[in-house]
Specification:
This protein has two domains: 199 residues, Medium-chain alcohol dehydrogenases, catalytic domain (Quinone Oxidoreductase, Chain A, domain 1, Alpha-Beta Complex), CATH 3.90.180; 142 residues, Rossmann fold. The chain is 23% helix and 23% strand. The strands form three sheets. Strands 3, 4, 5, 8, 9, 16 and 17 form a seven-stranded mixed sheet that branches. Helix 4 packs across helix 5. GO terms for molecular function: alcohol dehydrogenase (NAD+) activity; S-(hydroxymethyl)glutathione dehydrogenase [NAD(P)+] activity; zinc ion binding. Belongs to the zinc-containing alcohol dehydrogenase family. It is an enzyme of class 1 (oxidoreductase). Keywords: Cytoplasm, Metal-binding, NAD, Oxidoreductase, Zinc.
């Protein structure tokens, strides 16, 4: 392309300070360096993680910053040493990576790459620690190595999944974070058998994706657990068959579920980050074969407490990161599930806004009105 090796000037939504509306700015995007790719972003979506770090809750604030990590786009140019991606490729940038060389990448069991696993504190690129974004010579920090709230971004090639060019980017862009996290937690980690029962704790975007995984797996009962009863009607679209609001009962929710299911569910997936919900999700699975999977991220000082007999009675507790998907190896296959009509994505997309109105997407998320809001970059 004619822009190869040159600085590109484009629009980006910049967070100048915590909690303040993003400002549309003209930024300069430097060419990709070694093992990097420059991508033209066509569609991006808003994830709760973007909002959490924009609000600067619980970590060292890093501003000014370009947020965004769920997106789809087209490779504009590649840096030195990149051989598996080429200009024109349709891709999903992903917040975690797959270097292909470390013990985790060589393991069939792990997706937690030593080099490229998620790092919320890093504001520059791994190659040299520098930012590829600037305004009037002043660097703007990256976010999760993706920074997709920009018409062009630079990403490490190990964080870029090449996908089917026929896949609609305005739909499959949501595969690059929350959807795959919940879907994979069920399909890859809990692994319910056809006809088994599954409890989903938390019916936000990740929990609904976990329910979608249970639906795809052929679960006979999918029990949704949430403190917000207004979420229950919507969850039916994702295969949830029954609902429990812990506030409606005067006994522990694990006991309620055990009574509903003749001793406990076969599988449970926890998607809240509440340590109380994690304990409930574990203690509600059936002895002998029950498996509970933790997805939500707990608070720093939380401690998980349960009686050791729960383990000795052959209940299994697992954790997962990004649904146990390897970004470059496995995510193209998730896109193919959508293309083959096994996976339904449209029902996750509740809002669409033009890039110029990106702050509306934050409003929808903060009010709890959206599952996923697609931001159309060219609009």
């Amino acid at each position: 392309m004619s822009t190869t090796g040159q600085i590109i000037r484009c629009k980006a939504a910049v967070a100048w300070e915590a909690g303040k509306p993003l400002v549309m700015e003209e930024v300069e995007v430097a060419p990709p360096q070694k093992h990097e790719v420059r991508i033209k972003i066509l569609f991006t979506s808003l994830c709760h993680t973007d909002v959490y770090f924009w609000e600067a809750k619980g970590q060292t604030p890093l501003f000014p910053r370009i947020f965004g990590h769920e997106a789809g786009g087209i490779v504009e140019s590649v840096g030195e040493g990149v051989t598996d991606l080429h200009p024109g490729d349709h891709v999903l940038p992903i917040f975690t990576g797959e270097c292909g060389d470390c013990p985790h990448c060589h393991s069939e069991e792990s997706n937690m790459c030593d080099l490229l696993r998620i790092n919320t504190e890093r504001g520059g690129m791994i190659h040299d620690g520098e930012s590829r974004f600037s305004i009037n010579g002043k660097p703007i920090h990256h976010f999760l190595g993706t920074s997709t709230f920009s018409e062009y971004t630079v990403v490490h090639s190990g964080q870029v999944a090449k996908i089917n060019p026929d896949a609609p980017l305005d739909k499959v862009c949501i595969v690059s974070c929350g959807l795959s996290t919940g879907l994979g937690a069920t399909l890859n980690v809990a692994k319910p058998k056809k006809g088994q029962s599954v409890a989903i704790f938390g019916l936000g975007a990740v929990g609904l994706a976990a329910a979608e995984g249970a639906r795809i797996a052929g679960a006979s009962r999918i029990i949704g657990v949430d403190l917000n009863s207004q979420r229950f009607d919507q969850a039916k679209e994702f295969g949830v068959t029954e609902f429990v609001n812990p506030r409606d009962h005067d006994k522990p929710v694990q006991q309620v579920i055990a009574e509903m299911t003749n001793g406990g569910v076969d599988r449970s997936v926890e998607c809240t980050g509440s340590v109380q919900a994690m304990i409930q999700a574990f203690e509600c699975v059936h002895d002998g074969w029950g498996v509970a999977v933790l997805v939500g991220v707990p608070s720093k000082d939380d401690a998980f407490k349960t009686h050791p007999m729960n383990f000795l009675n052959e209940r299994t507790l697992k954790g997962t990161f990004f649904g146990n998907y390897k970004p470059k190896t496995d995510i193209p296959g998730v896109v193919e599930k959508y293309m083959n009509k096994e996976l339904e994505l449209e029902k996750f997309i509740t809002h669409t806004v033009p890039f110029s109105e990106i702050n509306k997407g934050f409003d929808y998320m903060l009010k709890g009105e959206s599952i996923r809001c697609i931001i159309t970059m060219g609009a």
